[in-house]
Each structure stands twice: as C-alpha cells, then as structure tokens.
Inverse folding.
C-alpha cells in the first residue's frame, strides 16, 4: 500500500494525466470563417522560434524525455525537423511536421495539437470518417457503420480508397504514440482519434471506396458517403460518451459504463451520478457490479477518484473516510487497449484495495508511465502542447513495460460483432452465472448488445 499512498497523494495534489490531447482538451473554437486560420502562412523564422520554445519546455519539464528514445537518436530527428522548415507553412502543416517527431519519444502525454480548424470544419457540417474500427489479430474489423449503406459488421477492411489498411494505419500512427511502444494500432478503436486523424492526414472528402472481406470469405467493394458529426450523434445510443448504468436483474447485477472522465471540474456531477446508481444498487440488494472502462481513455484523476470511494472495502485517509453507499459485493472491471491514463490509475487502485475480477485486454499504457501534464501554447503558431511532469508508479508495477493483466483475457470477436453481441460483457455475465447458484440456468439471457 506504500506505493499506492505515494501515487495517490501526487495525483491529488497535481491532477492527473493528459492522454491523448485530442480527446481530453477542450478545443478553442475560432470565431473566424471556417479554415481561415489554416491558410495563413507563417514564416520559417517564426516556426523555428516555436520549435525552440517547444523543445526547451520539454527539456525543462519532462522528468526523463529520453526514457524510450536515446538523445542521439532524437537529436537526429530534431535536426531533420529543423532542416524541413525552409518555407512558410500553415499551422496545420506545421503541426503535421512536428507531431511525428514528438511521437518518436514514445510518450503519449508529450504532444502538440490543435483543434480549432477541425472544430470549425465539423461545426460547419464538414464530412468526417463514418465507420468505427477495431484491431483484431493484425486485422482491422468493421464494428459500426454510420452511413445509410448496409455494410457487413464484423468484416475485415482490406482497403480504403485503394490504399491497403495497414499502410493507412501506418500513416495515422506517426501522429501519436503509446508509452514505450513503437506502434499502437489499437488507437484506431477510439472514434474521436480516428476521425480527427483521418481528416488531418487525408483532408476533406465526400465519399470512400471500402473493400471488405466478409466473415464467409467473400470480398466486396462499397462506395460509402462520409457523414457529418450531427448525423453520427443522431445514430449513436443516447448515453454514448457519457457515464450510464442499467440493471441486469437476470444476473443480479448492475452495469456501469464509465466512458467520460475527460471534462475537468465535474466532481459534483459525478458524485450525483454515483449517489443515484449506488442508492439503486443498495435498494435492489444487488450482488454483482460490472464497471465497463473499455471506452474510457482517461482524463481528470479527481473525477475517477469519486468512484473509488464507492468501491474500497475499508476507509482510507486519502478517500475521505468510509462512504455509506460503498458496494461490498462482487466487482468486475472490464478493460481494453484504450483504458489508459486515469482509467489505468483507477483499475490499479481498485485492484490494490479490494478483491476484483478484471476481464478484457491489457491496456496500452503500462503501470509505470510519465503523466500529469503541464500545458502551454507555442508563441507564434499558437499550437497547444503538453508535457508530463511526473513519473507515475502504480500499485503492482514491476517497471517492465506491462499494463494491468486481466484475470480473463477476452476480446470482441468479429463473428459476435456481426451478430450484435458484446463478447466481453457476455463472458462476464456467463462468469457471474457460474459463480452464483441463485441465478437459474434456465432463465432467459439478457439482451447483450455490443458497445
């Protein structure tokens, strides 16, 4: 528990990490005409001033910027970056030039970003990538379709606009990184990242030609239209992107989906949510609680800490004493490749504090990582940037680059995606049924829909 106390104390004092910028930061939307800032050219001398400012800040703030990439290797990349700044560039083109160099440090909390042009674009009904994807055994699987055309969910996407998908992922991957890892293709499962990066790399488009290999082995080409953000929101489930819960009486369980810890200063709102759901759990005398973190990439640790107080088995001085609504039944945490940053912290603390069953995939962030960022703005281009200022060592860390290892490793199966079944959740419910003799094997199964 010693490591736990040290880490939690640091996080409470400093706030939690920033992973990655394009989902957690609130974009500053310009009042200017759409795309106007993007076409303004900035002189090379000003661009190099921004590079000087950026690298000086990283060297001052980062506890160990060369933890995963040697100084000699990074200096070569940095010098190459400077040599490419010979002509005036727009902010977006400058961003596209810087981001791969920063990504070579293999620390997702060291980033440069900007959303103003993208937000202007989508708020003016700009068309964005209309599909949701997952990474499965080296293949890209179609998991959701926001177009009007019927597409085979669970199928393998082979090409998009004539480009083989591995090449497309390679192009997108150069803009982001995972802690200590050379590649992180699982990031495409995060819709916000995928849509933003597709726009950044390929620019606006009206349609896509998508080649898909169906589960039965047939290969077909589909011409699909890009869609607007408003059209996507209209087709999403009502609570998508927010925290929600539902009672699963057949399994004597409650399911809480924690998809949104990104907003800062939401402790009062989250406390109200927790009081509501845990009061209902107590009234129903529920024995099993499933907490789904698979779509939660992190955010403000202070937000996630709210939930800790409802789960720890005994009072802890860092958690303001015992919570009268604390749940003492069986807890199941569902995690995935993108349950990172504050979600990694949350899972590690819960696992260290009480008995819990963890189901899913090892997250892309290890139990020892650099986080807890300082944010700043580059003086000439006004691009935003962030640098971690803390080495975070979570309970259970062996400093071996590994994340939280699930008790049961389960991943969404393409054949289940095709049928609309959530593989991980169904596995969890079957596990509950086996462990609880009160749950009748003859009862009808809950309708388990894929996330």
């Amino acid at each position: 528990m010693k490591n736990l106390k040290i880490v939690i104390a640091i996080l409470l004092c400093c706030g939690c990490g920033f992973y990655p910028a394009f989902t957690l930061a609130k974009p500053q939307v310009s009042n200017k005409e759409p795309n106007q800032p993007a076409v303004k050219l900035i002189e090379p001398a000003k661009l190099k001033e921004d590079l000087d400012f950026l690298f000086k800040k990283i060297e001052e703030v980062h506890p160990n910027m060369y933890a995963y990439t040697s100084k000699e290797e990074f200096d070569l990349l940095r010098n190459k970056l400077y040599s490419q700044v010979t002509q005036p560039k727009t902010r977006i083109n400058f961003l596209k030039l810087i981001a791969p160099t920063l990504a070579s440090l293999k620390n997702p909390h060291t980033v440069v970003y900007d959303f103003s042009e993208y937000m202007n674009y989508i708020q003016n009904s700009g068309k964005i990538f209309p599909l949701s994807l997952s990474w499965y055994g080296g293949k890209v699987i179609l998991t959701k379709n926001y177009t009007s055309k019927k597409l085979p969910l669970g199928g393998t996407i082979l090409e998009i606009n004539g480009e083989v998908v591995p090449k497309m992922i390679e192009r997108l991957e150069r803009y982001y990184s995972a802690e200590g890892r050379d590649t992180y293709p699982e990031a495409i499962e995060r819709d916000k990242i995928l849509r933003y990066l597709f726009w950044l790399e390929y620019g606006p488009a009206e349609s896509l030609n998508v080649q898909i290999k169906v589960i039965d082995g047939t290969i077909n080409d589909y011409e699909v239209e890009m869609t607007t953000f408003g059209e996507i929101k209209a087709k999403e489930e009502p609570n998508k992107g927010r925290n929600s819960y539902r009672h699963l009486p057949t399994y004597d369980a409650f399911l809480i989906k924690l998809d949104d810890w990104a907003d800062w200063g939401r402790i009062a709102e989250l406390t109200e949510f927790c009081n509501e759901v845990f009061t209902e759990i107590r009234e129903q005398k529920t024995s099993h609680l499933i907490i789904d973190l698979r779509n939660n990439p992190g955010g403000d640790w202070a937000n996630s800490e709210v939930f800790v107080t409802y789960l720890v088995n005994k009072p802890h001085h860092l958690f303001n004493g015992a919570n009268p609504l604390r749940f003492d039944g069986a807890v199941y945490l569902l995690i995935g490749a993108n349950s990172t940053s504050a979600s990694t912290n949350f899972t590690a603390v819960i696992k260290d504090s009480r008995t819990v069953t963890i189901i899913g995939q090892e997250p892309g962030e290890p139990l020892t990582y650099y986080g807890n960022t300082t944010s700043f703005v580059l003086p000439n281009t006004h691009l935003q940037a962030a640098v971690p200022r803390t080495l975070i060592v979570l309970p259970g860390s062996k400093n071996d680059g590994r994340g939280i290892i699930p008790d049961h490793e389960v991943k969404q199966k393409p054949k289940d995606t095709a049928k609309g079944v959530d593989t991980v959740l169904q596995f969890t419910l079957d596990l509950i049924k086996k462990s609880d003799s009160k749950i009748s094997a003859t009862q009808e199964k809950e309708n388990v829909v894929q996330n």
Remarks:
- The two ends are 34 Å apart (CA to CA).
- The CA atoms of residues 207 and 290 lie 39 Å apart.
- The mean pLDDT is 86.
